[in-house]
Amino acid sequence: MEQCGITSSKTVLVFLNLIFWAAAGILSYVGAYVFITYDDYDHFFEDVYTLIPAVIIIAVGTLLFIIGLIGCCATIRESRCGLAAFVIILLLVFITEVGGVVLGYIYRAKVEDEVDHSIWKVYNGYNGTNPDAASRAIDYVQRQLRCCGIHNYSDWENTVWFKQTKNNSVPLSCCKAAFSNCTGSLTRPMDLYSEGCEALVVKKLQEIMMYVIWAALAFAAIQLLGMLCACVVLCRRSRDPAYELLITGGTYA
User: Fold this and answer.
1) What percent of the chain has pLDDT over 70?
2) Where do the TM regions start and end (predicted)?
3) How far apart are CA 252 and CA 83, in angstroms?
4) How confident is the model at residue 1 (pLDDT cuts 50, 70, 90)?
5) Quick one: pLDDT at residue 227?
């Protein structure tokens, strides 16, 4: 019965190492997605340290590929040193992931304050006639999130751009897609998105941070199982070096 347990542990461990390789790709994708999406909203969010969780996720993804290679070799060859190194590295990566989760929660809580601090400055710097990066970011967000202004479209009346144009209109990015003849005029508010962008930007950025948190938690759980199986194999290997090999079905002397 004990022999069956150790063989099962080794089989599960090899399977988990294959999962680690898949996880490496998934985590790298999540980290890259956060970077790309952040680039669309970076003018509303000045604290670059919020990218630290994404950096951690990408680093962990890279390490998981190496860990999977070490784990497979150590498990198949029944290497005591290899399994010990596998457990130690996996533990360090697990601690790093936990740190990423903690930072993710911390920065997720700061999102609203950061956006509230910077969004008015971004809107007040809008230049519709010669759009700079910040202006393009505003138009992108308003079209993508289907919003207008900070709290609603009337916020545009207090911007420098609105006072300079003197045409009683908001940017065309405030127009609902269903109204092809929309000019952004405030005399036709039914053509404009009624919801403000601030709350939606905060929600979007918090969702992005949650992707990092959930990805880290999911693979941290898998790593715990990997460490458990490796410890079972390692302890059995230390107590009784004569047990069935995973690769040959013989005994190790």
Assistant:
1) 78
2) 12-36, 48-71, 83-107, 208-235
3) 16
4) very low
5) 78
